[in-house]
Design brief:
Two copies of one chain form a homodimer.
Chain A (H helix, E strand, L loop, with lengths): L1 H6 L20 H10 L2 H6 L1 H15 L3 E3 L6 H5 L5 E2 L5 E2 L7 H5 L5 H4 L1 H13 L5 E7 L1 H10 L7 H9 L1 H25 L3 E6 L7 H22 L5 E5 L15 E3 L6 H8 L4 E6 L7 H15 L4 E5 L9 H12 L3
Parallel strand pairs in A: 1-4, 4-5, 5-6, 6-7, 7-8, 8-9
Antiparallel strand pairs in A: 2-3
Helix pairs in contact in A: 2-4, 4-8, 8-11, 9-11, 10-11, 11-12, 14-15
Chain lengths: 337, 337
């Protein structure tokens, strides 16, 4: 698999490409399946339909890897926290974590209940061409913990910051619990057939540098290193979003570092390019214009020439973009000379 | 004035401190005046009341500088764009810029209509102790342009990015117009009595590195250098939020660089500390806890020891914080040994 080879820094016939949120609302085929499912969470719970939307971008765009269709919040959900996706709003936990009892009540056997995810993986892997990789994923402990304490999205991170400053032990206990569950969850994804795993730390930039390494990166590395020790043939990709100013502190045994678009690719190359394969980092709104795509592709490909690289966006795809532009991007990268 | 001296890198008896959004909702005295005004925009328009809330943090917290109470969006408002502040929502321009005609209709004489701002400055300067500085301010051309095109806050910056990629000339014309108006506006603030000016580029991080320098920084520097040529005794502070990964590109003739909390102060010191006075960068939620304040203050003060520095937060104050903690911060910095 070209994608897996690239994750390990091997020579490949072309730079592989996939796109975060490539199975999504910009595809009418996706919207049709989602309609049938009734809502987003139902779709995550229905292996046949989840498998179908996972495969769509492979057929439609020709990307080199599929990423499991699911959501990072199914994990806290199966740990016992009610989860709502309301129309036009972000995800919500109506009863966020507050007390020590709330922590104690979290179901540490959650990975056993996420069977619909493993079934989705098996279905996808059966139908996916053997040269295409399937990427499994999870949210980082910090990002999940933030959702679980804030009860949803936040601009100020007030609640979670209060916990960090007034009761860091509470936060550490929660992060440790999540780390245990996430290792089991990703391990079960691997056993079900994924060829690589990515950990998304979407809210990394909510933390100051020292706090990022203490409350987030440490646990991501712990998950990565546990998996690498047991499954060395499975590449591990870490994607902390928005930490371009913290790159000199990045450490650990993992394979691929995901670069967000706010981090200049030159800077990532200088700081991390000798140690890790880099994945990224086209600015997503460039997909609105073919010219902007070509300019961005040239810039990234020229910078990474001769270095180990997987092409991706620097954040997820937007719902209102033109699939023809996405296709144009994939072809531009795969045919780049 | 200790604050102005520090802006020019002179030795001062203590490190001066002020806080972004120091006149704000966390003060009951502020809320009382705002109630009287009826709403936020009325308060901006009423010099007596705006002067009163500008002065409150000086009396209550003992900070070394007052910052004019106003809003960056009064400028596009006086350029002819209707502005709404709806309860519980961010600011909105119900008729965002779309056509070339919209651009042509912008009132280039707006600075002459912002008399309520200059009156506020005169009133404040009359009542402010002579050793305390008054800081004037404006939004950056890029940040204002983004509001004017998006029509309000945005997570994806879709509209403004489409303009950049499909019609960069439109954006440049808008940015040039704003630059002209903002120079006149800040000049009139200086003539009314402010002792320093700060330009807030709140949405700097919406841009990739190259785009940031092309569409934002260039115009900020243009404003700064025009003012410095005419008013060399007035310090100019530039605050582009979220560009910690772009610091090696910062250039221009201005006095103080504002460091946001996502940029490690060590990094800012290394990259810019020899060229500019640095202002910042305590993480605002540290104000929830005295311990977190002390830890943050020690870290920043130790790092900046012997370097030119003005203490501030790395972003605005939050509405739900305890004023006693804010006071504790001010004293910690002013008495730091």
């Amino acid at each position: 698999m070209i994608f897996v080879d690239a994750c390990f820094g091997k020579e490949t016939p072309h730079t592989p490409i996939w796109m975060m949120r490539q199975a999504g609302r910009y595809l009418s085929e996706y919207m049709a399946v989602r309609e049938k499912a009734g809502n987003f969470l139902n779709l995550c719970h229905a292996p046949e339909m989840a498998a179908e939307v996972t495969l769509q971008p492979i057929d439609i765009l020709g990307v080199d890897a599929a990423i499991l269709f699911s959501d990072i919040l199914v994990v806290p959900n199966e740990m016992g926290m009610e989860l709502q996706f309301l129309k036009g709003e972000g995800p919500k936990f109506p009863k966020p974590l507050e007390t020590v009892e709330d922590l104690e009540n979290l179901d540490m056997e959650a990975s056993k209940k996420l069977t619909y995810v493993y079934e989705t993986i098996e279905l996808v892997r059966k139908d996916l061409a053997p040269e295409k990789a399937l990427i499994g994923f999870a949210g980082s402990p910090w990002t999940l913990a933030t959702y679980m304490i804030e009860g949803g999205g936040t601009k100020t991170y007030s609640k979670v910051k209060k916990v960090i400053y007034s009761n860091p032990k509470y936060m550490e206990t929660l992060l440790e619990k999540l780390t245990v569950v996430l290792i089991e969850y990703l391990e079960k994804q691997i056993l079900a057939g994924v060829n690589a795993v990515q950990i998304f730390d979407s809210w990394a930039a909510a933390l100051e540098k020292d706090a990022f390494f203490k409350f987030s990166w440490k646990y991501m590395v712990q998950i990565a290193e546990t998996l690498k020790a047991k499954y060395p043939h499975i590449p591990v990709i870490l994607f902390p979003k928005g930490v371009g100013a913290y790159l000199d502190g990045i450490y650990g045994n993992f394979d691929v570092f995901g670069v967000d678009w706010g981090t200049p690719i030159e800077l990532a190359k200088e700081k991390l390019g000798d140690k890790y394969v880099l994945q990224g980092n086209l600015e997503p709104t460039r997909l609105y214009s073919k010219e902007a795509i070509s300019e961005g592709v040239s810039h990234i490909m020229e910078t990474m020439q001769g270095k180990r690289h997987i092409f991706n966006l620097g954040h997820g795809m937007l719902p209102d973009l033109d699939r023809n532009n996405a296709k144009f991007l994939v072809e531009s990268v795969q045919n780049y000379k």
